[in-house]
Amino acid sequence: MTSSPTVSASPHLTLPDGGRFPTIGLGMWKMPKPELPGLVREAIRLGYRHLDCACDYGNEPQVGAGIASALRDGLCRRDDLWVTSKLWNTYHEPKHARAACERSLRDLQLDVLDLYLVHFPIALAYVPFDVRYPPEWFFDPAAAAPGMKPIAVPYADTWGAMEELQRAGLVKRIGVCNLNVSALRDVLSYAKIRPAVHQLELHPYLVQPRQLRFCAQENIAVTAFSPLGAPSYLPLGMATPAENVLADPVVTAIAAAHGRTPAQIALRWGVQRGCAVIPKTASPARLAENLALFDFALTPAEMTAIDGLDRHRRFNDPGHFGEKAFNTFFPIFD
Questions:
Q1: So what CATH class is 12-326?
Q2: With bands split at pLDDT 50, 70 and 90, how would you rate the model's confidence at 1?
Q3: One of 48, 57, 126, 233 is an active-site residue; which one?
Q4: Of 84, 101, 293, 319, which has the fewest CB atoms closer than 10 Å, so is most exposed?
């Protein structure tokens, strides 16, 4: 089984508007706040130009401090950086979207975002900034039985608010996350500004061939989050050691054949499929390692072998973690 045509991996994807989208980024989910300003600065010094952020990660001020330090010291120009952030679930009502975007801009110390994404197709009740920021998933963590508080907001309304942010010049591009193909097709039916990027979970145990093929057909770039699979989820109890892609015999054998690490093989597979990948690491050594993907290539047979590892294993699924962690059953995937 081959999930998608192998393409020539490039350090950038060219978007329909001519934007150069770096295929290797640094993901900020679960990154430690105290070390983050220095880590972001070091990543930029090493050559990272794509930073993937979100309100919900709770660390945009620290990312902003790192960016400001790098720019102040001349490590790059602002135009060289691609900074993504995301609209959180509690700001889906159109009247809240601009304030949410402006808060991220302020925390990141930026005038404009290169990309702003709708984080989940989940609309939750608004939580004011002065009550809690980031608001996370619970509506009232102090309640006797805390839970998520879903509200009825059509995704089309939220998307219209995202379009207004682009027209206002606060963001250069807008996009989506965590949609199935049917939901993405629906967005395309009414969008006046089409999604530039779809960010979704994608790794060798969740290969997602139909998503890749449909996005390629519609000229929508794909960002693979959790491109290494289980490691980010093991500490949360959302994965088991037996589900670690980096210990899979197929991946380790290919790594040995190339004299590379299993992580480099998983990331190379992702970019060679035409995706941007956003691994996270707090290790300076691994920061450099994750960038070193463009001086080797996987063979068609190796790509097919990794494609064949697909277990349809989704680690980041609100239909599972919503009930376990937030006392609310909220499936968005079949």
A1: alpha beta
A2: very low
A3: 57
A4: 319
